[in-house]
Amino acid sequence: MKIEILTVGKPRTSYIKEGVSDYLKRLRSYVSLSVRHVPDYSRRKRPEKVLEEEGKEILGAMGRLDFLVLLDVQGRLMDSLSFAKWMQKSLCETQKKLIFCIGGAYGVSSDVKNRANLLLSLSPMTFPHEMTLLILAEQLYRAVMINNGSAYHH
Predict the structure, then answer these.
(1) What distance in Å separates the CA atoms of residue 91 and residue 137, rounded to the nearest whole number?
(2) Residues 62-97: pLDDT tens digits?
(3) Mean pLDDT across the stretch 8-16?
(4) What domains are defined for the chain?
(5) Which among 58, 73, 84, 134 is least surrounded, fewest beta carbons within 10 Å?
């Protein structure tokens, strides 16, 4: 089973890039993992057009059998243990890829929300999408460590 993190835009902040890189390196010892960045149109167009174009890019980056987890502030909240249990089950049941999607500055289009198999919230607070990528990478690593019986999660 393969996990993919799909983001709008690439991280630009050095400490975010370093942190994400570190967690991804650790994760790749345990799971098949990739990261894909679709273009960020937020600096060029009206918000409605940005959502439409980024939505097309996101939907074009996945197959119909992929399981899409959309990170959304209004999504389902899970603690780390519940997330680890859910992830282990989902990796066994998903036919293709388990995709975690982080939208752009304006969120995602309704088409992407409608395609999502699960809306997941990392917190009721709103984070910049770069920070969300770092938090997600850490939580994926934590889940894998929990499922492997590691002492990482205290």
Answers:
(1) 16
(2) 999 999 999 999 999 999 999 999 999 998 888 899
(3) 94
(4) 2-147 (3.40.1280.10)
(5) 73
The closest of 8, 20, 2 to 105, measured between CA atoms, is 8
Least confident piece of the model among 9-18, 41-50, 127-136: 41-50
Question: Do the Cβ atoms of 136 and 24 come closer than 8 Å?
Answer: no
- The rounded distance, in Å, linking the Cα atoms of 62 and 12 is 24
CA angle centred on 70, ends 68 and 73, rounded to 5°: 160
Q: What are phi and psi of 31, to 5 degrees?
A: -140, 160
In what helix (H) or strand (E) does residue 58 lie, and over which residues does it extend? helix 47-60
The model scores a pTM over 0.85: yes
C-alpha span between 109 and 123 (Å, rounded) = 20
- Run of H or E residues at 85: helix 80-93
Q: What is the mean pLDDT of residues 47-66?
A: 94
Residue 108 has pLDDT above 90, yes or no: yes
Please give the Cα distance from 23 to 31 (Å, whole number).
12
